[in-house]
Amino acid sequence: MKIAVLVKQVPGSETALPILGNHNWIDEEQVSFVMNPPDNFAIEEALLIKERTGDGEVVIVSMGPARVQKVIREGLAKGADRGIHLEEDGQIQTDPLSIAKSISSILMDENFDLVLSGLQSDDTGMGQTGVLIGEMLGMSTGTLAMETDVQDNAIRVKRELESGWFQWVKLPLPASISIQSGLNTPRYPSLRGIMGAKKKEIKVIPPTDHQTDSILQSIDKVFVSQTSKQTEMIEGNADFAVTRIIEILKSELKVL
Amino acid sequence: MDILVVLEDNRGSLHRMGKEAIAGAQKMGGSISALAIGVNADAMAGELSDVDITEVITINHDFVSSYNADGYSDVVSQVIKSESPKTIVAGHSYQTRDFMPRVSAKLDIPFIPDIISMDDGIVKQVLNAKLNALVTTSADQVILSFQSATFSEEAMVTGSCLTRSIEVNLDSSIVRSEAEEPFQEDAGDVDLESAELIVSIGRGIEKEENIQIAFDLAKALGAEVSASRPVVDSGWVEPFRQIGSSGQNVSPKLYFSLGISGAIQHVVGMKGSKNIIAINKDPDAPIFEIADYAVVGDVLEIVPKLIEALNN
Amino acid sequence: MSPAHFSIIEKVILSGLTLIALGSFSYEVLRRVFIVQKGLDSLPFDRFGERLFRVFREVLLHEKVIRERPFPGLMHALVFWGFLVFGLVTIDHFAIGFYKPFMSDSVHHAYSKIVIPFAVFVVFGILSLAYRRFINRPKALGKISPTSGLVAVFIVVLMGTYIYGETGLSPFVWKINWWIHSILILAFLFLIPRSKHLHLVLAPFNIFFRSFDQPDHTPVHIDLEGDEDELDAMLNDLTKLTKNQALDIFSCVECGRCTDVCPANRGGGILDPKYHFIMDLRDPLLEGKDVAVLDQINVEAGWECTTCQACTEVCPVGNHVEKSDEIRRLEVLVEGRVPQEYQKLFTNLQETGNTEGASSSPFADSFPVFTPGKEYVLWLGCFARHGLDPNFNKSVENFTKILDVAGVTYGVLAEEQCSGDPANRLGDKLTYTMLREHNMEQLYETKKVVTLCPHCAVNLGKEYGKYGSINYTVEHHTQVIGRLIDEGKIKVQMGESGKVTYHDPCNLSRMLDIVDEPRTAIQAASSNFQEMEESGRNTLCCGAGGALWWKKETQGRTHLVRAEQVIESGADTVVTGCNFCYGMMKQGLGPMTPEGRADVVVKDVADIVADNLV
Fold first, then answer.
1. In a domain, A215, yes or no
2. Chain-wide mean pLDDT for chain C?
3. Could you check whether the bond before residue C193 is cis, i.e. omega within 30 degrees of 0?
4. Distance between CA atoms of residues B233 and C585, nearest Å
5. Minimal Cβ distance to C551: which of B246, B264, B265
6. What are the pLDDT digits (tens) for B229-247?
7. pLDDT per residue over C549-574, tens digit each?
8. How far apart are CA C601 and CA B290, in angstroms?
9. If DSSP codes are grouped into helix, strand and coil, which group holds residue B254?
10. Strand order of the sheet with strand C473-476?
11. Structural element, H or E, at residue C273
């Protein structure tokens, strides 16, 4: 069983986010990076599947500048076998279709049985890459998997639906599945794992070997949300408060 | 047509997010066609008979009688190819996330998801909703999905529309998945981190007997229940409901706090909430500094009345 | 008593039985010694005189035994002193059987005048203890112990036969009595090494070898650039006990004092130090005949420990009970099993050098920067730098105010990173190594460090020293304040109103042995100071030790047990000397305060002094 896990390196959740002068994106020089938290669950699921089926290979795939090798190594330290680094120069890609085309072109010859990905990335949050790649490689696809069950040439996934509903779907292999956070407890890399990771292979694909020309969407500007925090004080008797709250819930927040 | 709105079947009736998408499309302007797929397509079309759009296209084929990613992405792609809409919109639901990227890849049309505003260009949140981003596209066609409640179904302009049914060709080899019946599951330990609506209890609830009104309010709103640390420490609710620096971190759409003072250890666990309504007796309670709506009053008086009003 | 006559047959039987008993005793003792010898490191002989004096106080005077449980402790002391007195008696007793008595009649008679009262004390003592164990059945003693019952019977009969033997008896009765007494002693010899009564032999040695440091964990040297074989060997060693630890396990007397004082246990957790850290390892040690048994420690219990060392402090036979460091580092470094709640903490430390993942500290920026001319490096710690409880920031400012008044110069290190205490205590020695190496570079030219956080002080001042030489001294801010008051550099008036009490932080009192200086400071500012129960080195941990501040799944009420004691003390103000204790008190006192009563005010030592500066 050959499993590819798509991982992304994103800014940490507590780090300050200074915006570039041209407002195009944040100044990545000043930011500390971490493994995209949802991807942790995907890596763990891949390792669990490998352990359950008894044999196989888990390959960590990531696209980005040189610094992303760090998260590839993290995956290797946890038990993955090798890594593939699609190198980017210049600013990071934000068009899911281009990213998917790049990655698909590299994964194509490897004939993976499974491609796993986190449910979305904490930076751009497009949530499509796994499914796009699945389509491009002719795989069946599934998203928000709360549980996986690998069978002969197929995988059953428990899809999370809204409002506490779930559904089991059986997909033939090869399949591309996005993993819902919380379905497993990601392991921590052991010291032996960290040491061993240094010796595992990371194949670097230079930009010219994978970049596509067509960029169909881009982020032009990032800005702080304009809605300033204006606190509306609601004083008066209980009935008045209740009326106003109902109105807020209905018309302004639209949760009723 | 200018805009194709892809609707969703919510167990026999039209999913709220589909209606919101129509309201959004109407705001964008142009000729609008809605697309209903599956065994309940006609019923869904019926719900839109008094809405001001051009038509509802219904498709019911054996292979898409109920949802599956292969079938839906193929059908929607066929419709886009034959009808050539400039824009395709849908609500950003779990289902949309499941199949729309397939359409995007099949047709090489960019998919911009989870949009929160169309007023001044296409805006979505990035970096854990800490920043907003203006997204532009150079393509002729684009697929958009709207975040829940970006538009309101009440804002749908009324009028009338036709229904048109289409035949599609679907090869049996297209649908590769085997889906079982959906089922409900007791969530068990509630995942507060993914909850959209949260009612949170603080020491202002005063006694353990009063905890029930918070749960009742949560039920009426369809919300989860959380609490501040003192309430958990007093043993009035289970530890997993604790919010704060030594509890969970949440950022729901609505955080409704009852009698929480707003100590920093609690606030760090919920300051990312999109909207905060706080009820507290003390007009100087620190929670009011970060609340969107500050209700100065007695939780024990207001909440029962609120529950009554909600249940009517 | 008449000189008895023992036939050859009797002497042969006596010799035989004695040989068997002595042989069995030696075998069992040597077997354990052999296992201890396999342990890592070596047994310490440094500070010889101090160690001997400690044995004198704790063994001969039974200091700890009596202090922690006064009445049972005294009863035990009676039995013990009686045992010592009986030494000569027993030698004489057996000499009679083999050859002839070595005490002359008059000496024997005179000595018996001392021994008989002791025998009575012993009977009184052992019966009281038996009553406690079998009728009262305190929880700490666990299940009914048949060997204890047997021992109690043995001792009573031994005393009885001795006393009886001193009365006028016919030769026949005297001989029967003599044999009963002898057989019981030989049976005792047989029983001792196979039960907790081995402490009779081992405790004095164990107390002698006990470390002067609390806690006393072996350092874990990690060199990622180094030899892989060395790393492998180091990882294998992580399962092995040291000689001292192995000796501990054989010395354990199963009294349960450690469990009695454990804050995690008292808070309703599953951790039971007596079993999880000591008893559970005994059978694996004996069966495996080797010391690689640390992986037998219950993992869940290991994560509950606050590393407060109360168990080590109270152990009457000198055990270093706590072993959470050992099991946690196995789980983290070897198994890669880290509770989810701590994974983010470790990532934050690795990526940003602080526990919160923050990219800057405005609070730290508000202080002057350290330059070589200044006296102290003011080490802030993550708690203050990143506002884990923003109220404490005021306490830091109060301390600098005191320094300013006293004319003491100080500055903060621009590149200060987390001292590494959370990583160290949670078993992530790799992250600890990264932080430690970074900080050692920052402290290269430093001579004196002062900090408000005892956890930082323990690491900078003591733990770092295990890995390399350090050329700076570390003081806790209460030491500095205490000294400034003593030297008259600051003047404090007794202006504090209300009843004031002090909660000793476990890292400060037990690990750094700083107990007096905070009291000096508080009593300069308050005329109404009263000690809490379990104070000084016997303090009860607030619950945040061992990096448990970051524990999300609070199952027990560890953090509330101490808060309750504060409330019960009736104090209006509780002063503490640690930022974590401060935070825990602030959170825990609220729910524990009964209705109608005013909230207890929480202050740091720096606060109460600054509030009352003249």
1. no
2. 92
3. no
4. 13
5. B246
6. 888 888 899 888 889 876 7
7. 888 655 567 778 899 999 999 999 99
8. 26
9. strand
10. C410-411, C376-379, C448-451, C473-476
11. helix C273-273
In this complex, do C588 and B232 lie within 8 Å of one another by their Cβ atoms? no
Whichever domain contains A136, its CATH number is: 3.40.50.620
Q: What is the pLDDT of residue C552?
A: 65
Please report, for residues C362, C456, C469, the alpha-carbon distance to residue C366 in angstroms, rounded to integers and kept in the order given.
Answer: 6, 20, 31
Q: Does A108 touch chain B (CB under 8 A)?
A: no
Question: DSSP letters along C277-303, please?
Answer: IIGGGHHHHHHH-SS--GGGS-HHHHH
Q: How far is CA B241 from CA A112, B210, B237, C336, C375, in A?
A: 41, 17, 7, 28, 48
Highest mean pLDDT of the ranges A27-36, A179-188, C473-482, C585-594: C473-482
Residues of chain C contacting B247 with CB distance shorter than 8 Å: 552
Spatial separation of the C-alpha atoms in residues A38 and C296, rounded to whole Å: 33
* Contacts for A154 with CB less than 8 Å, ≥ 6 apart: A170, A171, A172, A173
Give yes or no for a contact between B203 and B230, defined as CB atoms under 8 angstroms apart: yes
A96-129 pLDDT, tens digit per residue, is: 999 999 999 999 999 999 999 999 998 999 999 9
* Integer Cα distance of A210 and A114 in angstroms: 21
What does each C-alpha distance from A196 to A75, C226, C346 come to in angstroms? 12, 12, 20
Residue for token digits 């019952």? C149
Helices C8-37 and C171-191, axial angle in degrees (round to 10) = 20
Distance, CA of C269 to CA of C271 (rounded, Å): 6
SS3 content of chain C, % helix, strand, coil (to 5): 60, 5, 35
Query: In total, how many domains does chain A have?
Result: 1
In chain B, the domains with their CATH numbers are 3-165 (3.40.50.620), 192-311 (3.40.50.1220)
Spatial CA neighbour of A10 closest among A143, A134, A120, A128: A120
Q: Give DSSP secondary structure letters for C19-66.
A: HHHHHHHHHHHHHHHHHHHTSBS----SSHHHHHHHHIIIIIS-HHHH
Q: Which residue, B220, B217, B225, is CA-closest to B195?
A: B225
The string of DSSP codes covering A70-102 is HHHHHHHHHT--EEEEEE--SSPP--HHHHHHH
CA distances from C341 to C345, C429, C436 (A): 7, 17, 23
pLDDT for res C553: 55
Is residue A244 included in any domain, yes or no? no
CA atoms within 13 A on the CB side of C381: 26
Question: C599 and chain B: CB distance < 8 Å anywhere?
Answer: no
Collapsed DSSP state (helix, strand, coil) of residue A44: helix
Give the mean model confidence (pLDDT) for residues B122-136. Answer: 90
Q: Which amino acid is at C467?
A: Y
Q: In C157-175, which positions are buried (b, 16+ CB within 10 angstroms) versus exposed (e)?
A: ebbebbeebbeebeeeebe
Judge whether B248 is closer than 8 Å to chain C, CB to CB: yes
Q: Say yes or no for a CB contact (<8 Å) between C553 and B234.
A: no
Contact status, residue B233 vs residue B217, Cβ threshold 8 Å: no
Query: Taking CB atoms and an 8 Å limit, are C334 and A190 in contact across chains?
Result: yes
**Residues of C in Cβ contact (< 8 Å) with A189:** 336
State the DSSP code for C531: P
> pLDDT tens across B26-48, in order?
999 999 999 999 999 999 999 99
* Chain C residue with the nearest C-alpha to that of A189: C336
| CB of A51 closer than 8 Å to CB of A78 | no
CB-based contact B233 C591, cutoff 8 Å: yes
Pick among C221, C351, C550 to test the A interface (most A CBs inside 10 A): C351
Count of CB pairs separated by less than 8 Å, A with B: 225
Q: Which of A188, A195, A200 to mutate to test the interface with C (most CBs of C within 10 A)?
A: A188
B234 to C591: CB separation less than 8 angstroms, yes or no:
yes
Q: Can you give the residue range of the structural domain that contains A73?
A: 2-209
- Would you call B208 helix, strand, or coil by DSSP? helix
